[in-house]
Amino acid sequence: MENSLAVIVVTWLAMSIRMSIPLLFPSLGGLLAQKAGIYNFGLEGMMLCGAYFGYYGSYRTGNPWIGLLMGMAAGGLLGFILAFTSIKLRVSQLVIGLGISIFALGLTGFLFRGIGISTTSPAATLFQKIDFGLLKEIPVLGEILFTHDWMVYAGFALVILIAWFFYRTTSGLNFRAVGENPQVADTVGINVELYRFLAVIVSGVLASLGGAFLSLTQTAYFTENLTAGRGWIAISAIILGKFNPWGVLLACLLFGAADAFQMQIQVMSLGIPYQFLLMIPYILAMLAMVGVVGKVRSPAAMGKPYVKH
Asked: Is-contact 255 233, C-beta < 8 A?
């Protein structure tokens, strides 16, 4: 009994890490955009396009790297559309972001059916897990830490890189200034539009990585609405993480643990309706939001279009 419980706990911890990654990439992407003063409500759509084009590219070529590049290109293009319409045309960031997510849901569904799939999709070529040799044989820690593919470790490395960029570089200081007070930033010679454009485009690319992770490491398949609202949970993770890369990481691990928990409960066949179990990560996100709304300070100029005088 004790051995069975230990196996369940270790498996859950390993799954928690894996399930945090499709949230971590879009959360970091959304954080970049919001630090520069732009709401990215299109994260869900960018993830979906990353998932579909990642799957399609890998399926057609047999090379997951080509699929990954196709997914990133799709996410970057949607990021550019959001940047151009919200920064240049000053269209509502909320409206454009929601429009991108709705458009992506319809587009990926249409293209997926266009392949000629009626029941199940053909499998794409997946990224393989890294072989750590003897490290993965370490009791407990081996399975938890050394049984993942490269995208898992890239996600954690990205947290370190973004934290270093924000708080240890001049460009990072300029980046945050653009989101806090663009008028002052412009006065001292910082190109506000350029920083915001780059932030939103990179945000789209990172969000697409979250979607591509699902289709290129987890499932090998694409289904309509594969991301299942993870883009919206990513927005919650940014707020719960108090707009800090390390806080965002902890929030994503929390949501990933909840997702892994509901998956394990389903496998254990305890008689609980699976629909209820699927609700767990979203209920947790709502409860977390209720607990932090009004207590978290967002970038002062977030969501406000900048007009140069």
From this structure: yes
